[in-house]
């Protein structure tokens, strides 16, 4: 753990909420990324971010200093998000409506928007590791710890998730599926 | 499409999602610290009180009803018997400054009102340090110092200011905004 980060954690343990505010500032983006990967909904993800930081603060004494702080915090976030998901009413599977004529030359930003929507429409077990990988550049070990799955499973799901995105885009004629 | 190109596309797409989230996360630090301060000081938020009173658990409903009646009765009697000048309670005036710091050894507040000289707070024994300072109407910037450490964000402040890389809190006394 970085020295100044250790100091922030120590100060937070002493009751210094300003120090915890600094930690929130540093990690809110990463925490949001995990929350939205699981919840797929911006408003819910925002609530999960708040709850995750509050829960992490109240459990700070349980944090093992030998462990990377970011991993611990993101694991707390994943648990908060999954709890919220369980309480949420199940949603019908998202159907993404493709533009009428995808063969038209597509502007880059349209293509990125399509890719984003494809990612959000993936099943949970492929979407979550994919978002953690491409949002945070997390390595396999960290994804495995945050999502509580074996590293081999993470690799498999990343490959399949990526292949699914590619196949869906190719199916609609947006790009070739050939390697 | 090669996987390398798809990887780049995935990165760029999610980067845009991150950029859009920035507005959503603006002020999250303040929201979290205010909620924590409320929980730590033992003062439930008004929502929690409302939920407890409007939907008490079944077993408690009778007790809540009796409690409300007793509280009203005691309040009525107190108003009749112990009005101003009754037991000689002094009315407190001034602005309360409070910090929850159970493990601290010294806490002070400094601000415009003290020419930024420290004013010591007292621990009443519960780990909550307090001081009441008489302040004429106006706008006051201040910060706490807890065991030598600057603590600039008071959860009950009206606003925060940041200068020279440090936060300070702001309170308005008697509506001077």
How do you describe this structure in short?
Helix content of chain A is 70%, strand content 0%.
What does this structure look like?
Chain A contains eight helices and no strands. Chain A has two domains: 3-87, Rna Polymerase Sigma Factor, Chain: A (Orthogonal Bundle); 108-171, Winged helix-like DNA-binding domain superfamily/Winged helix DNA-binding domain (Arc Repressor Mutant, subunit A), CATH 1.10.10. With 179 residues, chain A is mostly helical. Chain A has helices at 3-13, 17-39, 42-58, 69-87, 108-120, 124-136, 140-147, 151-171. Chain A is elongated. The longest helix of chain A has 23 residues, at 17-39. By secondary structure, chain B is an alpha+beta fold. Chain B folds into three domains: 3-41; 52-87; 92-173, Sandwich (Immunoglobulin-like), CATH 2.60.40. Chain B is built from four helices and nine strands; from the N terminus they run ααααβββββββββ. Chain B has helices at residues 3-24, 28-40, 46-54, 58-81; strands at residues 95-100, 107-111, 119-120, 122-123, 128-133, 138-146, 149-151, 159-163, 166-173. In chain B, the strands form two sheets. In chain B, strands 2, 3, 6, 7, 8 and 9 form a six-stranded antiparallel beta sheet that branches. Chain B has a three-stranded antiparallel beta sheet with strand order 1-5-4, with no helix packed on it. The relative contact order of chain B is 0.10.
